[in-house]
Design a protein that fits this description.
about 475 residues, mainly alpha, 28 helices, about 65% helix, about 0% strand
């Protein structure tokens, strides 16, 4: 398969071939179904996701060689698998099937290269090769905004800003581009430019979820005010999608509005047992019980939400929460949980499942307690991230990855990097830094003299009831 990926990305087009327009299908009905799917994909609700996937499947029934539809079906599953009630195993199987079919096709088009890039990141953890695949898509079509938006992931700050500026010139009225640009500019500390994009979104699409997302970025990340972000959401006139409902729940949790956070999760709940995004948010709710006093009614509401999940997923949610609030030993000594972690780490994927987040947390705690077997399994899967973390400083998980992989063993250097990340802006984890003192990602820093004092002060400054985050 590696050779087939290489072959797919090594095709050099002659000038006359580049001038030819790629014809994805000669079946008008199939192409019409493809257009219907494209129109539905980014709406962020179950009905739209179902229409998109069914339309693409029907398009392929009409024309099995419609490889552009096949590539978009891959992407549709990635963006909407949780809305469709799929397990991560089902998603993996669908992706593997579509990917295997795509890489052996002779067709050359940018969405195929983007599928290859996604697969290289998600299932092979090869960021360097994924960057090359993304650049290949841009070479095929320099105006592909999806490819340019993806390229930012692999760039340093200066190059990322240049790519964002290029995006905005190519698609000055595209609301998805403006939202993406607002996010990355915030990440890079370019707050005024990010705020300007939010204002432009408000003018051209005031009822869009892109506008709401940009507002959350600007009020919470840039201005460090959860209260202002929530005030904005209260006055928002559009229909809020599931992703933004979850963000509102996180913000309400940060401001200690437990009933409000529970209400958001109850509103966004789907009745299927493998709801990963709900599971992630229920983990945050369980963690929050360690920070404030909950009523019996609130605890019962949370338990009812958890009961909708698969039994093993419930176990993982509770275990991950316990690991992140410092209840390490009862999790580490549990043989079933150790076996789940051990069986998950050899096949780690990027950024999908709470099971994998749990397994990494388990391995980090186990390593801190002196057992390196599991962290060595993780190292075999995430070693490609080392160069990514070395060039892109802004991800909070990078210091522990660099330490345990042996890429950087000077804890003081890594502590300074963490301070740089956290003091620059909120790193986009929506309140997870409240648990800085107990988070498994930072246990290796506990013997750095200043770490605990820094962590306590950071939590006090940003998450206490009197912090600007809650009162401004």
């Amino acid at each position: 398969m590696t050779q087939e990926i290489t072959n797919a990305l090594s095709i050099e087009l002659l000038p006359e071939e580049q001038a030819k327009q790629y014809i994805p299908t000669t079946n008008p009905a199939a192409y019409e179904l493809y257009l219907i799917a494209k129109n539905q994909l980014n709406k962020g609700n179950k009905e739209a996701a179902t229409i998109a996937v069914e339309s693409l499947q029907n398009a392929l029934n009409l024309d099995p060689d419609f490889h552009l539809a096949k590539a978009n079906l891959y992407m549709a599953y990635y963006s909407a698998w949780d809305l469709l009630g799929m397990t991560t195993e089902q998603l993996t199987e669908k992706h593997r099937e579509l990917f295997t079919e795509l890489i052996v096709t002779p067709d050359v088009f940018e969405d195929k290269s983007l599928v290859i890039a996604d697969y290289l990141v998600m299932y092979m953890q090869n960021y360097q090769a994924a960057k090359k695949a993304t650049e290949h898509a841009i070479k095929l079509n320099p105006s592909n905004t999806d490819a340019l938006s993806t390229l930012v992931l692999y760039q340093n700050k200066d190059d990322a800003i240049k790519t964002v500026e290029r995006l905005l010139k190519l698609a000055p009225t595209n609301i998805e581009v403006k939202e993406t640009a607002s996010y990355w500019l915030s990440y890079a500390g370019e707050f005024k430019a990010s705020e300007q994009l939010m204002a432009e979104l408000g003018e051209i699409a005031p009822d869009s979820n892109e506008y709401l997302s940009a507002a959350f970025i600007n009020f919470f990340i840039n201005k460090k005010s959860a209260k202002r972000a929530l005030d904005f959401a209260d006055n928002f006139q559009g229909k809020i999608n599931r992703d933004n409902l979850f963000l509102i729940a996180r913000l309400k949790l940060i401001t200690r509005d437990i009933d409000g956070a529970l209400a958001m999760l109850e509103e966004s709940k789907d009745n299927y047992p493998f709801d990963e995004r709900l599971a992630h948010n229920l983990t945050e709710m369980l963690k929050a019980q360690s920070l404030s006093i909950w009523t019996d009614s609130q605890r019962n509401r949370l338990e009812k939400l958890i009961s909708h999940l698969d039994v093993e997923l419930q176990l993982i949610v509770r275990a991950k929460a316990n690991l992140q609030i410092g209840n390490y030993h009862e999790v580490i000594k549990n043989k079933q949980l150790r076996e789940i972690a051990k069986s998950t780490l050899p096949t780690l994927r990027a950024g999908i499942a709470i099971r994998e987040d749990f397994a990494i947390n388990f391995a980090l705690v186990d390593a801190f307690l002196g057992n390196t077997e599991l962290i060595e399994l993780a190292n075999k899967r995430w070693h490609h991230l080392e160069s990514f973390c070395s060039s892109f400083l802004a991800f909070t998980g990078c210091p522990s990855l660099l330490y345990y992989s042996g890429k950087e063993t000077d804890k003081q250097v890594l502590f300074e990097r963490l301070k740089f990340i956290l003091n620059g802006s909120f790193p986009g984890t929506w309140g997870a830094e409240q648990y800085l003192l107990t988070d498994p990602s930072y246990l290796f820093l506990h013997d750095v003299p200043e770490f605990k004092d820094f962590a306590k002060q950071y939590i006090e400054d940003n998450f206490s009831e009197k912090s600007p985050l809650n009162v401004l």
